[in-house]
Amino acid sequence: MKYKSILLKLSGESLAGANKAGIDPEQLASYAKQIKKISEKGVEIAIVIGGGNIFRGLKASAAGFDRVSGDSMGMLATVINSIALCARLEEEGCSSKLLTATKMAPIGELYRAKKAKKFMSKGKVVIIAGGTGNPFFTTDTASALRACELQVDVMLKGTRVDGIYDSDPEKNPDAKKFENISYDEIYKRGLKVMDMTATTMCKENDVKIAVFDMDTEGNLGKVVAGEAIGTVVS
Ligand SMILES: Nc1ncnc2c1ncn2[C@@H]1O[C@H](COP(=O)(O)OP(=O)(O)OP(=O)(O)O)[C@@H](O)[C@H]1O
Ligand SMILES: O=c1ccn([C@@H]2O[C@H](COP(=O)(O)O)[C@@H](O)[C@H]2O)c(=O)[nH]1
């Protein structure tokens, strides 16, 4: 395996599968199987999941809430997805541990980097729920933060597109894919695959990012093995 330790960011929206909302049991099972496979190969794994399939804070004002309340609801949405993944991994026979950014016992223990690293070194898949624990952020930024804290080899953004394009491929069918790209090129072109706070955090702390299509079974194993199936940012 090319990468011995990873921070995997999973898209909440992708977890919804074809239904576009909620959690699709087949999608969840596919993610769990892929994660179990690389865990069995000795890869240390931490996971952050988004909450876009349930709630996003940015939509709060339209729904009649203030932004901070909306973001709190968004962070709780990530906890729901994290509980689901943790339960599914256990079902698959893959030992996992749910840690939370804010106090939430008995749902999960409070996150601390040292604690997370200890579990990871013992072969447990660590799921870090609740984003950063602060409003006005996203789970992309939470992923970048945890990747820095845990000093993993790479931050993997597993999503429903197969890499970074020169424009949003879900809107422009003629968009061209990059195999490699620099952080600065992402700023210069204003590419929106990840938010700028997350990109900056990775740039400043020298965290490599790989963006790939997690919805095709087997892709996680390929990316961790170093196959060039997505886009690498460095
Ligand atoms: N230049 C680009 N290259 C690739 N994808 C892009 C680009 N610009 C925008 N995107 C969009 O970014 C999305 C990937 O982001 P992400 O995985 O964070 O999805 P999300 O719906 O925001 O997930 P979450 O629920 O975790 O917030 C893709 O679905 C794609 O449409
Ligand atoms: O650190 C964080 C992370 C997330 N939020 C809120 O949660 C939702 C869902 O996260 P996504 O990354 O969009 O999937 C997000 O829209 C924020 O409202 C947060 O406040 N702080």
Order of helices and strands: EHHEHEEHEHEEHHEHE
Bound molecules: adenosine-5'-triphosphate, the ligand O=c1ccn([C@@H]2O[C@H](COP(=O)(O)O)[C@@H](O)[C@H]2O)c(=O)[nH]1
CATH second-level architecture: 3-Layer(aba) Sandwich
Give the percentage of residues in beta strands: 15-25%
Function: Catalyzes the reversible phosphorylation of UMP to UDP.
EC number: 2.7.4.22
GO biological process, one term: UDP biosynthetic process
Pfam family, one: AA_kinase
Describe this structure in words.
This protein has a single domain, classed as Carbamate kinase. Helix content is 38%, strand content 17%. It has 8 helices and 9 strands. Strands 4-3-5-2-1-6-8-9-7 form a 9-stranded mixed β-sheet, with helices on both faces. The radius of gyration is 16 Å and the shape is globular. The protein binds adenosine-5'-triphosphate (ATP) and the ligand O=c1ccn([C@@H]2O[C@H](COP(=O)(O)O)[C@@H](O)[C@H]2O)c(=O)[nH]1. The site of adenosine-5'-triphosphate (ATP) has 19 residues, from helix 1 and helix 5.
